[in-house]
Amino acid sequence: NGKVTANSYISGADFVTAGKAQLKLVEGKSKGASNPVFWYKTLSYMAVGDDFMNEVELGTYSGQEAMWKFGDGLTLEGAKVTRIVCGMEPMKVKASVKKATASGKIQFPENAPETTRNITNNKDFEYVAKLLKQQDFSSLTDWKTLALQLEFYKHRDYHPMQVTVAEAILALKDIPGDIRMDAMICMARAGGAHAQDKAQAAFERILK
What average pLDDT does the chain have? Predict the structure, then answer.
């Protein structure tokens, strides 16, 4: 009757919140009908300052190719995709197969995934950096996502991706002044080694 006795055992999985998806449209049951209902799982995570980057894999139960649209603006395509989600807040996601769309949220359980990556470890850093580079920075519209990515790249002095991410941040509107200034400083420093014209422009903006 729900009573927990001294001999009861509750596994960590009992505390995991199941993902929820709302099916917007269902086509016929015939073979090949569109079915965008999806699953996801967190594969690994990395601490970046006081926040976290999470490696998340998503896929359609049907194995069909889908267009994935995430709450931070990122879009991906495939029956199964892997991406880095920045932060621990729930991430909205929609999966579309033709005219059928399933929507839901990626939610992170209290229990950390088995694989932990360390930002000071070069192999782990390059693994996460490779996943980030596969993402289209120009489609990102969430400054918090970009700010954490910039913080990640700042752990390697003058990393060329500092220029790319800083440029994406500066292209957004209504971002906090300290985030904008940090992006300009990174552009000026890293740009000096990889994009001198952009570095010069950043210096001029800082000095205004």
Answer: 86
